[in-house]
Design brief:
It is built from 29 helices and 26 strands. It is of the alpha+beta class. It starts with a strand and ends with a helix. 36% of the residues are buried. About 2% of the residues have low confidence.
């Protein structure tokens, strides 16, 4: 910081620099001269009344507060460090010396105003005529003769601006004391003007006070208040941080749990010791010391595993038994002794069962609040379930009607049944029923109400003529029965020749245009027919012919796409071609497909006749149906079509589609996970994004870090996450929440995971996957995501984090610690999260690669403001920053004489206010500690 700044001892205006005196106790006189140059002589002109007098402090009755840039300590602060000096900065660099009635002497110049810090209790501010004033004993004021030391100018190194000026108060502040910082005049003329509000000639340049004068009244130009705290700045507190002693570490080794009799009215667990020996284990919390090992009670633990597995298995028979944590998400109701996965690890160990029970207990303690938040999130699920129930009822009733009355219908009856909706009902061919019949050999009226009435069973025609409607439908659909004088459905395209004399005869031109327009209409109708024939042929087994027709239509489809807006999907496939070409305007359907039929593949040869050709009555489709598709249409198998129509008229898919659209409207576009069967309810799982680490630390702190309350002040502790504990706790929280929701009839299936966040990550990402997705064969520690189980924690406790909650903490690899004075900040790893446990305890979380013993940790002051002062104690005197206060609390620093030069510093060229600012500037401090210092060597 100091290397980036330059200081100057003063800045004085040209008028002040022209003063004749260097002693500010006499009149401020200026002797200006003006030399007039003529052709032959020079004339010197002086003021007729003699020397001019500069206006000094006696003409000042206030300071514009807008000129104040910053004050330190900040106004209202309650815990500032007493070893720092109060200061005030102005944006006018010459302001502190603007009215000084003297010029500089030897690089030193007294300011015309000074900054004093007064104890608020003994020196209250009082309202005055021009300015507020304060009555103060001169023993509480600094020496004005040394005030040149505590005013200077500052600018960035190597730049001409911005320039600021600063006043320092050399008082060593007392601890835990309220202070009022005041800017007051340093000369008697300023005192009188500030108290009376007018100009005065009464000793204008005498000092405002002198030692031993007693109580004086001083006007106050500017003031603010602050309070000091206990002694200790960042350097002092950071260097006081140390590791735990072995005795203190033992208190963080976990909680001792007696497992001798885990169940009432049951035999104690087996033991290697004599009868009555108590069996204890050590259970760690969510955080544990590095290199923590558990030992003891192996026989009792083995007996516990056998018994708890037996008791859980008995629970399947209706016996009250210990809970199977995670059973519902894993879809398991018993433990598998042959395979040790996360479910077995969780339920067979007392440590993990304790962690899970802590989660269940936390949910019980907060169940009302949690359920209120869960119901807030359920939103439209209840409305969706009402729709589901209604849809299930409708599906059951309509399905029964469909099975009894629609499925038994014969083909002709099915056509009659579907006739009213022939324009809307579509089978799997993708064509409406009306269109599919239109491109078949059957007459279009086959699905018309009039013909259906005529052919109805027990009708007049059926009784008198013996007409069988079912046989008629079958034969006409298959092409076995054709009209007596049939005409081709699709004919060859012809281009009419221009009429003779069209250019000369208007009538001939009109006739020629009409003939050509008729041809274009026929071409458009031809393309529409072919676009409908393709999907019908594909659905009825004529795959080769369907492919050939589709290939023929690619030209018109491409022309249509080129003249329209880009489609969402390309016009390919028989069904998409039909949907595009069937609705296109006739003028957009262009293209001659006649020539393309000449290049048909041999197995897809279809006959194409000329327009207006009457086919011979002997022609039939039964000999080669595929060859006559263009003449008579696509043959349909009545039974196959009957099945397709039956499926198309099934109400279940229609009801499901309707339900989907209604639920999407209900959820405002949010997709529900709908059940497979309409009768099953929609299951919802609320999402609680709150990190459970904070809940555990707040409500059950002894299990977040057992023994954390016993950590003394000024300690650094290196910890690591206990992945099995975290995973077990999260299973317990989710299990109990699911049971509570089921008890309160919340729509859940007991498999959801409402809690998926353990650590308070800045990005809010979940670090615990849903329990039902955990890998069955893996252990508990494997199941966590985002390195949630690999977290390393540096815990700081004491005065440092209380006074400096925003200090910078970083982990540094050993390769970057070759030179502790020049750490490369690019290699620093900053905390992933910062957890404030209380006002004196903060946990900084990292994910460190490799062996944690090889890492170092930096504690750096997060300094954002210029501060001046001295140390209260120093282990050495290597730099100017090691200067210490040479006076007790309440005394005033005096650097009028240069102190001894530190070993690592060079002697300054001169000693003035700029040098004083340089040596009293407090640089940001940082301390470096190794992991081995905190946790010892690897074990």
């Amino acid at each position: 910081m100091a290397e980036e700044l330059e200081f100057a001892p003063y800045m004085q205006s040209s008028i002040g620099a022209a003063l004749s005196s260097t002693v500010p106790d006499g009149p401020a006189l200026i002797s200006p001269e003006l030399t007039l140059l003529g052709p032959d002589q020079e004339v010197t002109v002086r003021p007729p009344q003699g020397d001019l007098r500069m206006l000094g402090p006696e003409g000042v009755i206030g300071i514009d507060t807008r000129r104040v840039l910053r004050v330190d300590p900040p106004p209202g602060i309650q815990d500032t460090e007493p070893n720092y000096m109060a200061c005030i900065e102005f944006d006018a660099p010459e302001l502190p010396w603007l009215f000084t009635p003297a010029r500089a002497d030897g690089g030193r110049l007294r300011p015309w105003l000074v900054l004093v810090a007064l104890e608020s209790a003994a020196h209250p501010l009082q309202s005055g005529r021009a300015l507020p004033f304060v009555d103060v004993d001169t023993a509480a004021l600094p020496s004005l003769g040394q005030s040149w030391q505590w005013a200077h100018v500052q600018r960035p190194a190597g730049r001409s601006e911005p320039l600021i000026s600063r006043l320092l108060c050399p008082l060593r502040l007392r601890s835990n004391t309220d202070y009022t910082a005041c800017v007051v005049p340093a000369f008697q003329g300023g005192v009188v003007a500030g108290l009376t509000g007018g100009l005065t000639d009464a000793e204008p340049h005498g000092d405002a006070w002198w030692p031993g004068q007693g109580v004086v009244r001083l006007p106050v130009y500017h003031s603010w208040q602050f309070r000091t705290g206990e002694a200790g700045d960042f350097e002092q507190l950071a260097t006081a941080i140390g590791p735990l002693s072995p005795e203190e570490s033992a208190l963080l080794a976990g909680r001792t749990v007696d497992i001798t009799e885990p169940w009432l009215y049951d035999e104690p667990l087996a033991s290697d010791g004599p009868p009555g020996t108590r069996q204890t284990i050590t259970v760690q919390g969510a955080l544990q010391l590095v290199d923590t090992f558990t030992e003891g009670a192996e026989t009792a633990l083995a007996d516990f595993e056998e018994r708890v597995a037996l008791y859980i298995d008995r629970g399947r028979e209706g016996v009250v038994a210990p809970p199977l944590y995670g059973g519902h998400p894993a879809v398991r109701d018993r433990l598998d002794d042959s395979q040790m996965g996360w479910l077995e690890e969780l339920n067979l160990g007392p440590e993990t069962r304790i962690a899970a029970s802590l989660g269940t207990g936390w949910v019980r303690d907060n169940q009302e609040w949690l359920m209120a938040r869960a119901w807030d999130q359920v939103g439209a699920v209840r409305d969706a379930n009402r729709l589901l129930n209604r849809t299930a009822f409708c599906a059951e009733v309509s399905g029964s009607v469909h099975r009894r009355h629609v499925q038994p219908l014969a083909p002709d009856e099915m056509l009659g049944f579907a006739a009213p909706v022939r324009d809307r009902v579509r089978s799997d061919s993708g064509l409406p029923l009306k269109t599919e019949v239109a491109v078949s050999p059957a007459p279009n009226e086959l699905v018309a109400p009039a013909l259906r009435r005529l052919l109805r069973r027990r009708g007049p025609l059926a009784r008198h003529a013996g007409l069988d409607g079912e046989s008629y439908a079958r034969r006409t659909l298959s092409g076995e029965l054709l009209p007596p004088l049939p005409t081709a459905m699709v004919t060859r395209s012809t281009q009419p020749e221009p009429m003779e004399g069209e250019d000369a005869n208007e009538f001939n031109a009109i006739v020629g245009n009409a003939v050509r327009a008729t041809g274009e209409v026929r071409d458009a109708e031809r393309i529409r027919l072919l676009s409908a024939m393709a999907p019908s042929a594909l659905a009825n087994g004529f795959d080769t012919q369907a492919s050939a027709i589709t290939a023929l239509l690619e030209g018109p489809a491409a022309t249509l796409a080129a003249g329209s807006e880009p489609a969402e999907e390309p016009l390919t496939g028989a069904t998409r071609l039909f949907r595009a070409l069937s609705v296109a305007a006739p003028e957009n359907l262009v293209g001659d497909v006649s020539s393309a039929f000449a290049e048909q593949p041999p197995d897809a040869v279809m006959t194409l006749v000329d327009p207006d050709t009457v086919l011979a009555p002997t022609v039939s489709m039964t000999d080669d149906p595929g060859a006559h598709i263009l003449e008579f249409g696509v043959p349909l198998d009545a039974d196959t079509m009957n099945g397709r129509l039956t499926e198309a008229l099934d109400p279940a898919p229609l009801l499901s589609a309707r339900l989907d659209s209604q639920i999407i409207d209900l959820s405002e576009g949010e997709a529900f996970n709908l059940p497979e069967a309409p009768g099953e309810p929609v299951m919802a799982t609320p999402d609680f994004a709150a990190p459970m680490a904070l809940a555990l630390q707040k409500d059950i702190p002894d299990w977040f870090l057992p023994g954390s309350a016993t950590i003394p002040d000024d300690r650094a502790v290196l910890l690591q996450a206990n992945a099995p504990f975290i995973a077990s706790f999260m299973v317990g929280v989710n299990d109990e929440m699911n049971r509570e929701m089921r008890w309160r009839e919340y729509p859940t299936d007991l498999r959801g995971s409402p809690f998926t966040h353990f650590w308070p990550r800045p990005d809010g990402a979940p670090d615990v996957p849903p329990v039902h997705s955990w890998v069955r064969e893996k252990g508990l520690g494997y199941q966590l995501a985002l390195d949630a189980g690999e977290v390393d924690v540096l815990l700081l406790r004491g005065r440092l984090v209380r006074r400096y909650p925003n200090l910078l903490v970083a982990a540094v690899p050993a390769s970057s610690v070759s030179d502790a004075d020049d750490l490369a900040e690019g290699t620093w790893q900053h905390p992933k999260m910062v957890l404030t446990l209380d006002e004196r305890t903060v946990a900084y979380t990292f994910v460190l690669e490799g062996d944690i013993h090889d890492w170092w940790f930096v504690l750096a002051e997060n300094s954002y403001r210029m501060r001046f002062g001295f140390d209260t104690a120093s282990a050495g005197y290597e730099h100017w920053s090691d200067l210490t206060w040479q006076v007790p609390e309440g005394g005033f620093a005096d650097l009028s004489v240069m102190p001894p030069v530190p070993a690592q510093e060079q002697s300054p060229d001169r000693w003035n206010a700029a040098t004083v600012a340089m040596v009293s500037l407090q640089r940001p401090f940082r301390v470096l500690m190794s992991a081995r210092e905190l946790i010892g060597e690897p074990q």
